[in-house]
Design brief:
Elements lengths: L7 H13 L2 H11 L4 E5 L1 E2 L15 E3 L1 H14 L1 E2 L2 H10 L7 E8 L2 H14 L4 E4 L1 H6 L4 H11 L4 E4 L4 E4 L4 H15 L4 H14 L17 H9 L3 E4 L12 H18 L6 E3 L10 H10 L3 E7 L12 E5 L6 H9 L1 H4 L3 H4 L12
Parallel strand pairs: 1-5, 1-12, 2-3, 4-5, 5-6, 6-9, 10-11, 11-12
Antiparallel strand pairs: 7-8
Helix pairs in contact: 1-13, 2-13, 3-5, 3-13, 7-8, 11-12
Length: about 375
């Protein structure tokens, strides 16, 4: 796990801008010069556990609860938080978005989104969109990437042998070293097609006798449809993150189209409001392409988010591939505030983000 606080020059500069008291003034100047849609991307909100004992991926923890509350308070005080569906309505009407518009989004659909994030959003009065992988909500099974990290951390096997990736190494006893190995595996496996990723993980499940099918880990479980319906009734909104959290551009075209359509049909069946929002699973430039965008539009979605880092100066022009600003647990309050105010300077650069976990490593300012 990265050290908490403000790592590197980018983080230190963010903290300096924040502590100087100039940040809000700089933000106001920027809002006069540039109107762009910012979309924050979260995964999990939960207390940061001990990395030596926690058996799942630490990189998916975007922020602990107290810091999330402060982030949302800052958003509410200095920015214009909007629902993505309201942004769709504005785009359809040809209306300009208000200055400093920010949308809050979550990917995957972990149950801590329901237990921890949703009550804080309600307390502060900030809307949010939750992109869920419907197949995991249906079955309660853990997500493939998180389960792969879990197996590497917990297996008693002496070696990790992945001929698909050219990896054959001894597994050290130290949990921190295993986390580093797991991060490298996650990064390299994204060059495989979706079936290759699934086959590799399933083979390890069999070889190590660690099946995900019957697993219901408390520390890593999806929300339920009942929880999603409760969140929707409270004013939060939902969109698709595929069915099985597979890289859509790495599927055969027919399977990709079916995955998108099935996710929408499931959301429309389980929830009250029609699903018009999509977030491409993994979401970097290898995870979606023009064929995926066309299938998303054809299925009836009206806006889609990538996991490519940046803001959207003209969201009407890339409404099916909107950039987002990832929030990571090593961001202190100053870095977060500076990223919101000055995203081109303070968001993750490509090189830094490429070393991180199962989120797509395609971020650039």
């Amino acid at each position: 796990m990265n050290q908490r606080g403000a790592p590197g020059i980018r983080g230190r500069l963010g903290e300096l801008c924040y502590s100087s008291g100039l940040l809000h003034s700089l933000q106001r100047v920027r809002s006069w010069l540039q109107r762009d849609l910012r979309i924050l991307a979260y995964h999990r909100v939960m207390p940061v556990p001990d990395p030596e004992t926690y058996p799942f991926d630490m990189e998916l923890i975007s922020t602990p609860p107290d810091e999330f509350r402060e982030q949302m308070r800052r958003l509410k005080k200095y920015f214009r938080p909007m629902r993505l569906t309201d942004i769709v309505a504005a785009l359809d009407a040809g209306e300009a978005l208000p200055p400093d518009t920010v949308a809050v989004t979550f990917d995957d659909g972990y149950d801590d989104n329901y237990r921890i994030a949703a009550p804080i959003l309600d307390e502060v009065g900030v809307p949010a969109t939750f992109f869920v992988s419907t197949g995991h909500i249906d079955t309660g099974t853990p997500y493939l990437y998180d389960w792969l990290v879990h197996m590497i951390l917990m297996t008693r096997a002496p070696r990790l042998v992945l001929p698909e990736l050219g990896i054959d190494i001894a597994l050290p006893a130290e949990r921190s070293l295993r986390r580093r190995i797991a991060g490298n595996v996650l990064l390299r496996m994204k060059w495989l097609d979706a079936h290759g990723q699934s086959a590799m993980t399933e083979r390890l499940e069999q070889e190590w006798n660690m099946p995900s099918a019957g697993a219901r880990p408390v520390d890593c479980r999806p929300m339920t449809w009942d929880q999603a319906r409760e969140m929707e009734a409270a004013g939060l909104e939902f969109g698709s993150h595929g069915v099985h959290h597979r890289m859509l551009a790495r599927l055969p075209v027919e399977e990709m189209e079916a995955e998108i359509l099935e996710s929408k049909r499931t959301l429309d069946r389980e929830l009250r409001n029609p699903a018009i929002l999509m977030s491409y699973p993994v979401g970097g430039d290898r995870a979606y392409n023009e064929a995926v965008i066309a299938a998303t539009r054809k299925a009836g979605f009206q806006l889609a988010c990538s996991y490519v880092c940046g803001t959207n100066p003209e969201p009407s022009e890339n409404r099916y591939s909107l950039y987002r600003l990832p929030v990571e647990a090593n961001m202190g309050p100053g870095w977060f505030a500076a990223m919101l105010a000055l995203p081109q300077l303070m968001s993750y650069p490509t090189a830094a983000h490429e070393t991180q976990g199962p989120q797509e490593q395609a971020c650039s300012p």
